[in-house]
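name: query_chain
kind: protein
chains: 1
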Amino acid sequence: MEDVNEQRDDNQTSGSTPVTATLERPGPLFASKAASSGAPFIETPVAYDAILLASFGGPEGQDDVIPFLRNVTRGRGIPDERLEEVATHYRHFHGVSPINEQNRELKAALEAEVARRGLDLPIYWGNRNWDPFLEDAVREAHADGHRTLLAIATSAYSSYSSDRQYREDFARVLTDTGLGEGDDPVTIDKVRLFFDHPGFVEPFYEGVRDAVAAFLADGVEASAVRVLFSTHSIPTADAERSGPRDVEWGEGGAYAAQHRAVAAHIMERLAEELPETGGSSWSLVYQSRSGPASQPWLEPDINDEIAELPAQGVKAVAIVPLGFISDHMEVLWDLDNEAIQSATDAGLRAVRTQTPGVHPAFVAGLIDLVEERLNGTPAAERPALTELGPWYDISRPGDSENVRLGFKPAAAGILP
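structure:
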């Protein structure tokens, strides 16, 4: 059956013919005046008065699981019996997804960093699929007198569900609540995608460095170590639409290109700082696919890749959750459970490295992104660790189209 997960919740078309939406549509941008200009980078200061932390959400008890999964799959007509099959992952953890508690910790850490820098910016947290919902967060911000919000979404890369869908959520909320209309509307902009920001990459680098160094210290030769950078698989049709259409991204679109660029940076830095690790190899792999077998998704699957490693002389594997912000369900189940078991079955030593979570560099980096927009920092002065960055403040036309549904109204982006 089709799974559901904490990264992707819009299973696209299972057919082979994509829906091509027009690149013109009427409607408001729900954005600040600066972000409505259509410029790729906003290099003038914007007086934001609050931060909106936007995430996926997750159940916090056994009674929440099926209602949560109904929210995730709304509009797709999946019966509860099928949802219960997916619910086993959550039931294994007493019906509790760790993502909400992780977001509480991240919100508290961001608030502490904001206070340390003397910024007068309250932080509101809202989810797409479970309490606290985005609608409630935006209503609360409005009731407190805030009108110009800057959103941080808990996703770093280009794709429909990790980027554009959040902006569609903001437009939907501002429309449904009526708060995006009238003479004093609420606007919601979004910080740039941060896949190659130093604060996001540093925790992953530290994890790779420590894992590979530990293998070598235990007598494993560098040539027998493989680093597997794992991210969420998405339909190839979505991946091909995951970046601006005027760029040739290669296989997997901007989504795969961003992951490959960050992984290559980490391994190059590792070889420079620890030359003895230079023989270690790496691969980009995918996990948690949830579509029908007839629909092409990004490959290789991490478990399939692990099964082939012994024949390549690999003795130890470091599993790096490069596509994930925190240790939510897909990390705990798909990596800590299934992938580690695959490594055990293959006779490999294995370790799963850390996610950013509330790592100080990550927290500071997110507020750096906020200050970029507060100060109108020129793009040339913004930090980025790959040639792909810094990424755009304003998504370009056609970026991250939903193949099945086409373009819906979205906040803070150039049309569509």
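note: The radius of gyration is 21 Å.
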